[in-house]
């Protein structure tokens, strides 16, 4: 890994106790750039200070499974506009240690709000009932998405991929419509529950043949989202539990698939939903998936700690939170990494990986995600691309907290009512090094001290204003 090779060089020059620091700032001055390295017991030069502690020996928590973003039809369309050389370089920057080393991706199973018109599934068949799925077909867009995921997997052998549908084929629903929510009939027709379970099996098998092994699924994106201008389906918590327990889980096992099922895939404010699904179908459900749209402050993420306390053997993931070009809220993407990690999340997935400059393409419905923009934006003619600020903020976590790291408990994080303050999360990495990711919300540099359980003195360095800074401390 690149940062490990950098550490090796630094240690050779500065000794075995050398550490390193990399930062990304709101003004773009730092973009995963080298910052002042922490030093044991260094003296404060006379600026405001803040102290954190990490408990890398006695405070071990969850294992990190990765960071990444969602691959949508819009992502594929935008990235495929680039020349082969530019696209290869971009994917290398996204998926390898020389870049930001993404290792956890989510993809849309057929159409989402970030698809060009018309909406589609893998078995539309002009709306005719097809219980045997003889018309199942990925189509051009599905094949293009599977191909891009296969390329990503070649670049990142440790990649974990989650697949999520926005809706089953319209003929499987009570209202017989792919788009047409807003009523109680935007639900799965019980007569086609077996067909829907087999739809998952065929999709997984077909992607596997394309070289895009899928590690996990959720059975429905935002199951309480019943919007009428995009593919959606209303699934109540008891219905979700029963569908996984009685149909989807057994179908995956009967097909010899090891694909995990994750529950929920919606906001943090309906704790009872994943709780009910776990109580009904825990033998088939390995994790809970959460979105950020109930709020992105520290208190909004405490349901994940509650879930861990009730289901300590299950994993949790933050599987969707928007990114947008032009936002001055640089804190947003770093926070939807920081706060879930502080509350037992095993991985983080941004919405979305790539788009055209300014957003899209998106379905034409007025309520859809037209302004949702990717971590990377591509000019509509494919002549150039730009890594947006959220790319760098995500990279502060994904590049320096490797897969297999263990998040550790700590103290010192605090936000004031005016939004200022400091936050941090630490990890013990597989090679014994330690990472501390620090969010500085002050419009000034802060002298940060980090105490550990391995050293009697604190690590100290200047952390840039309005930045996210990652310290890599040597093996104790």
TrEMBL record:
It is found in: Secreted. InterPro entries: GH, GH30_C, Glyco_hydro_30, Glyco_hydro_30_TIM-barrel, Glyco_hydro_b. Residues 1-18 form the signal peptide. One of its GO terms (molecular function) is glucosylceramidase activity. It catalyses: Random hydrolysis of (1->6)-linkages in (1->6)-beta-D-glucans. The keyword Cell cycle does not apply. GO terms for biological process: glucosylceramide catabolic process. GO terms for cellular component: extracellular region; membrane. Residues 404-470 form the Glycosyl hydrolase family 30 beta sandwich domain. Keywords: Glycosidase, Hydrolase, Secreted, Signal. Its EC number is 3.2.1.75. Residues 64-401 form the Glycosyl hydrolase family 30 TIM-barrel domain. It is an enzyme of class 3 (hydrolase). The keyword Secreted applies. Belongs to the glycosyl hydrolase 30 family. This is glucan endo-1,6-beta-glucosidase. It comes from Trichoderma gamsii. The lineage of its organism: Eukaryota, Fungi, Dikarya, Ascomycota, Pezizomycotina.
């Amino acid at each position: 890994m690149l940062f490990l090779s950098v550490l090796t060089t630094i240690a050779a020059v500065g000794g075995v106790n050398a550490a390193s620091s990399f930062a990304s700032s709101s003004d773009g001055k730092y973009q995963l750039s080298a910052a002042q390295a922490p030093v044991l017991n260094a003296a404060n030069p006379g600026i405001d200070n803040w102290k954190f502690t990490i408990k890398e020996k006695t405070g071990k928590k969850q294992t990190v499974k990765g960071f990444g973003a969602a691959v949508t039809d819009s992502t594929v369309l935008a990235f495929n506009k680039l020349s082969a050389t530019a696209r290869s370089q971009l994917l290398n920057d996204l998926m390898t240690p020389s870049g930001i080393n993404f290792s956890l991706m989510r993809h849309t199973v057929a159409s989402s709000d970030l698809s060009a018109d018309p909406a589609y599934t893998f078995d539309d068949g002009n709306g005719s009932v097809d219980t045997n799925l003889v018309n199942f077909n990925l189509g051009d867009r599905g094949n293009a998405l599977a191909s891009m995921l296969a390329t990503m997997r070649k670049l990142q052998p440790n990649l974990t991929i989650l697949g999520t549908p926005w809706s089953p084929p319209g003929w499987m629903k009570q209202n017989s419509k792919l788009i047409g929510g807003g009523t109680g009939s935007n639900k799965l027709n019980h007569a086609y529950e077996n067909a829907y379970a087999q739809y998952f099996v065929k999709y997984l098998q077909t992607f596997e043949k394309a070289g895009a092994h899928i590690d996990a699924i959720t059975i429905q994106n935002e199951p309480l989202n019943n919007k009428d201008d995009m593919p959606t389906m209303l699934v109540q918590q008891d219905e979700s539990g029963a569908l996984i327990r009685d149909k989807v889980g057994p179908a995956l096992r009967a097909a010899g698939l090891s694909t995990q099922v994750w529950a929920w895939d919606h906001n943090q404010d309906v704790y009872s939903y994943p709780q009910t699904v776990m109580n009904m179908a825990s033998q088939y459900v390995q994790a809970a998936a959460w979105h950020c749209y109930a709020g992105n402050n520290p208190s909004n993420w405490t349901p994940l700690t509650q879930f861990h306390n009730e289901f300590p053997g299950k994993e949790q993931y933050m599987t969707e939170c928007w990114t947008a070009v032009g936002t001055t809220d640089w804190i947003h993407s770093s926070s939807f990494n920081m706060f879930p990690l502080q509350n037992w999340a095993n991985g983080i997935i941004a919405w979305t990986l790539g788009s055209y400059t300014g957003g899209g393409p998106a379905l034409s419905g007025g309520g859809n995600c037209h302004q949702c923009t990717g971590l990377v934006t591509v000019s509509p003619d494919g002549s150039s691309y730009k890594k947006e600020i959220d790319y760098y903020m995500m990279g502060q976590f994904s590049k320096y907290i490797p897969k297999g790291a263990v998040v550790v408990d700590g103290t010192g994080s605090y936000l004031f009512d005016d939004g200022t303050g400091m936050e941090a999360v630490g990890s013990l990495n597989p090679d014994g090094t330690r990472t501390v990711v620090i969010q500085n919300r002050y419009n000034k540099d802060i002298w940060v001290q980090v105490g550990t359980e391995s050293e009697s003195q604190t690590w100290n360095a200047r952390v840039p204003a309005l930045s996210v800074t990652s310290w890599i401390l040597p093996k104790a």
